[in-house]
Design a protein that fits this description.
It is a single chain. The chain is an alpha+beta fold. It has one domain. About 30% of the residues lie in helices and about 20% in strands. It starts with 7 loop residues before the first helix and ends with a strand.
């Protein structure tokens, strides 16, 4: 059973392709969230069109009217929860994670905290990125922590998202592989706990959140 609130459900569907049976998103979702920045500012920094952003078009409507969609652009669903602005993308990557080293507007400024979980389908492995507010970018592959000794690292540990190297022996290796399969849900659960972030699965699957097109980096 999927927990339809929190964030663990995103990880539970992380290896699934885009699902045409729902008008919104379900499989392969990457998440980027930020606090210390206004919602529209963040989306503009990602490349969102000002007019489209002002219209607050629900995802399902934007996709349905997407005949003129540029070839090198992807749909992004967005919302807020507490202090955080979040962006969901299901094209296999996070736009922010691909652009922070190339696009000046995406680079974090002082006091801006980012947490990103990107599936990196086109450039594995899956990773978690954390900018704690001082413009430093910490990176952790699934199964590891960021090495910063932060509350996020503690949340990853608490959620069972940290595993050691592959052990010797058939039984131990099978247990290790089983833990690896549970990593995406554990990572998203940890990020949800750290951020106090909950995104309703039914709302995302229905495509009810507002959306914009974001150009590929």
């Amino acid at each position: 059973m999927s927990d339809r609130t929190g964030l663990a459900w995103i990880g539970q569907y992380s290896t699934a392709d885009r699902d045409g049976s729902v008008p919104g998103m379900r499989g392969g979702i990457s998440l980027t969230c930020v606090r210390g920045m206004e919602k529209d500012e963040f989306l503009i920094n990602l490349g969102a069109d000002l007019d489209e952003l002002a219209e607050r078009i629900p995802y399902r409507e934007l996709v349905a009217s997407g005949d003129g969609r540029p070839a090198r652009a992807n749909y992004a669903m967005y919302g807020t929860c507490g202090e955080w602005v979040y962006v969901l993308e299901d094209w296999g990557m996070s736009t922010w994670s691909t652009g922070i080293h190339e696009v000046k507007s995406m680079w974090p400024g002082p006091g801006e905290e980012f947490v990103c979980v990107t599936m990196n389908w086109w450039s594995p492995p899956c990773v978690t990125l954390h900018v704690p507010g001082d413009e430093r970018v910490f990176r952790a592959e699934f199964g590891e922590d960021t090495g910063e000794g932060s509350a996020l690292d503690a949340a990853l540990r608490e959620a069972g998202a940290l595993i050691g190297p592959r052990p010797d022996g058939a039984v131990a290796e099978a247990e290790h592989e089983e833990r690896r399969e549970r990593l995406p849900a554990a990572v998203f659960r940890a990020v949800g706990a750290y951020c106090g972030l909950s995104i309703d699965q039914a709302t995302v699957e229905a495509g009810e959140l507002p959306a914009v097109l974001i150009p590929m980096v």
